[in-house]
Amino acid sequence: MSDRPHVVVLGAGVLGLTDAFELRERGYKVTILARDLPQDTFAQTFASPWAGANWCSFATLEDKANQRRDAITFQKWLELHRQLPPEVMAMVDFTDINPTKREAKDVWFSSLVPDFSVLPNGDGTGAHAIKYKSFTISVPLYTRWLVSELTATKPTLMSAARAGPPVDIRRCSTMQSLAAVRSLIPTCTLVVNATGVGAGDLADVRDSNVYPIRGQTVLVKVPSFKAPSMGARCVMKLGSPANYVIPRARSGEVILGGSFDIRQSSTTPSTELAETIMRECAKLVPEIVPPGKTWRDIPVISHNIGLRPAREGGVRVELEVLKNDAKPLTVVHSYGIGPAGYQASFGIAKEVADLIDAHAQQVRPHL
């Protein structure tokens, strides 16, 4: 392992954490530097803590790259959910409502997910709907598990026999450039740029294609969804406006959404929008309303704003050598996935690690 790069991952959102997981599992020494850490559950400057995280692929039939990323993540989550507690990750019924009629041949993942079916029109779920089983996760608990695997001396769910040393996770309040990482980690030989919308501000990146997508959600309490027998379910109604009900696994917490405000970055929730979200989501899943009550009586935990890190042209996963420093710096970019960070996370992490493996193999004779 001594001839492998010391990789510094810049950013601790879901992509940064999952990239680090994959790299440690492959035997690399990894350090994470980030302004916002997973325990910063009220930080509004990144999206990962606020997400209604589930696996509901947005990839079209033509979009093979994102199909691959999402499929890899689905297969990985199939492994993990057998070992993680149900309050962290659970497989539940999904209903996906869309303005466009779809048959199984129109949905690339129809043969990937269990129990896929096309619902008949007029069944009360919407004009055009599909149903299947898929995953939801509790973001606070899932990211806490990722951190525990990264930092444990003996991780439990990664291949511990070949895993690298425990990952050092450090808070770094300011980072003006990727090259500046070397001043903090002199042994760094490769940087993974998982800075999300921050990639637009780094002096040696300045990616003008990145932008935030503001999302407002309401986190509510639905105690009955803790029990498998009570039928916790996920409903995604796409279109304009979009509404969704995403249980945080079987934790008893549920995300209601939402908004999709492109290039907006205000972090102040709208009371009017929050009421609209709750009212419309109660129509989609009446079980979130306490018995004998109305949508106004749903127990609210918090009103949330998250800034999804999107990018014109889609996610950037590529290796680049920056030569604007006295010593060239090898960078693998990993940002710009927008609202699909969790469902694509392990697929993107595999691409990042494959690029680093190939680079390490090329430079090894010269080390």
The CATH class: Alpha Beta
Overall 3D geometry?
globular
Average pLDDT over all residues:
91
Helix segment tally: 6
Secondary-structure element pattern, one letter each: EHEHEEEHEHEEEEEEHEEEH
Strand content: 25-35%
Integer tally of domains: 1
Using the coordinates shown, work out and report the CATH topology: D-Amino Acid Oxidase, Chain A, domain 2
What class, by secondary structure content?
alpha/beta
The fourth-level CATH homologous superfamily is D-Amino Acid Oxidase, subunit A, domain 2
Oligomer: single chain
Helix share bin = 10-25%
Kindly, what is the distance between the CA atoms of the first and last residues, rounded to a whole number of angstroms? 12 Å
Biggest sheet overview: 9 strands, mixed
Please state the CA-atom Rg, rounded to the nearest Å: 21 Å
CATH-level-2 architecture: 2-Layer Sandwich
- Runs in which pLDDT lies below 50 for 5 or more consecutive residues are none
The total count of strands amounts to: 15
Family: Belongs to the DAMOX/DASOX family.
Pfam families: DAO
Binding site for FAD: 195
Protein name: FAD dependent oxidoreductase domain-containing protein
